Amino acid sequence: MDSNYSPVVSHDEVENRPPRRPLSIKRRPRFWLNLWSLLNTIVSVALLVVAMAMVKGTAKPSPAYSPVRADGAERYFNTRYRPSKVFQSPPTDEVDEAWNGWLRENDHLFKFPKEKAIEVGLPEAIELFEDPGYGAYGLGVYHQMHCLNRIRKSFYPDAYYPGQARHELLHHANHCFDVLRQAILCHGDISVVYWWNQNYTRTDEGGKQTYSEEYLRRTPEERVLGSFVTWDSAVQCRDMEAINAWAKANRVDDDKYGGQIVD
Fold first, then answer.
1. Do 203 and 232 form a contact (C-beta atoms < 8 A)?
2. What's the pLDDT band for 62 if we cut at 50, 70, 90?
3. What average pLDDT is seen over the chain?
4. Which residues cross the membrane (predicted)?
């Protein structure tokens, strides 16, 4: 038989053969599958964009460079705020010693390589005249404590600044007010304070309240009117002992610069 010809199909075979589906019906399932995949991709991308925007708005940015953190000296601990009588008292030798314990001469100054400062993004500082190639830097906490102490002393000018003009005292105090304002708002302490009447109650070390008979006799309104803000709440703090140890280990040489660098 000639290979160019094929056998003729009989009439019975034609009747028994299943009917062919139209081409459009074959392609229809694939069309819906492709459409579903496209819509699924669009929705997934949209959700990803929304999630990234939410993360960007809530993610904590990288902290600014600090040599304390870089050296692994940044530590935290849980504690409670406690009132300190010595830091609420008028000038005495004991009070001055307590404040000076935080602010020993040049404890808050350390030298740092100028090239390294540029590398980590620190501002350029004045070069130390006894240590070429090193700049004079400090930690913010000591500057803030210095400012707080300066404001405290301005309340007792006769004891600390006899004969100094009032405008000179106010000039430095106003500078310190702004330093502390920015530091407080920057750190944004979110520990909880509360209103309480400590005249008729006592809080022990475990946080348990003991009520006096006079307090218990008062009406709820009288208790509220006699209350004031109390801050002995649970807080998480940086370990200042660790920071002090770092500062003392890295401070400038007192024999070279003692009292010669002012702020």
1. yes
2. confident
3. 81
4. 31-55
